[in-house]
From TrEMBL:
Gene source species: Stylosanthes scabra
Listed Gene3D superfamilies: Nucleic acid-binding proteins
Pfam families per record: DUF223 (PF02721)
Domain Replication protein A 70 kDa DNA-binding subunit B/D first OB fold: start-end pairs: 15-102
InterPro entries from the UniProt entry: NA-bd_OB-fold, RFA1B/D_OB_1st
Name used for this protein in its record: Replication protein A 70 kDa DNA-binding subunit B/D first OB fold domain-containing protein
Length: 103
């Protein structure tokens, strides 16, 4: 995933979160990181198994994003909560598991 801080006045067309589909190969989003957290490894507390984010575009649409364990180290220093980023060259996968709820 290519990542850069969003710059106001950019003339490059961006996609809306609501229009993102797995079949579309080229996409660019400008989103705010609304929530960012790491899921810890159950055996080694220093390592994270994934980095989870909730991203929101300027229209208010949200999407969940995961960074797997092999890339957490790279993006941990680049992405922070409550900042706006331009993201492109990433993979979309359909979530086929039902949401897990607690009482």
């Amino acid at each position: 995933m290519a990542l850069s801080s969003a710059v106001a006045g950019s003339s490059e067309k961006t996609d809306r979160v609501v229009d993102v589909r797995p079949a579309k190969l080229h996409r660019k989003l400008v989103v705010a990181v609304v929530r960012l957290y790491e899921l810890p490894n159950q055996w080694i507390s220093k390592n994270a198994t994934s980095m989870e984010m909730v991203l929101q575009d300027q229209e208010g649409d949200r999407i969940h994003c995961s960074v797997d364990s092999e890339h957490v180290g790279t993006y941990k220093t680049l992405i922070s909560e409550n900042n706006i980023y331009s993201m492109k060259n990433f993979i979309i996968q359909r979530n086929v598991q039902p949401p897990r709820t607690t009482p």
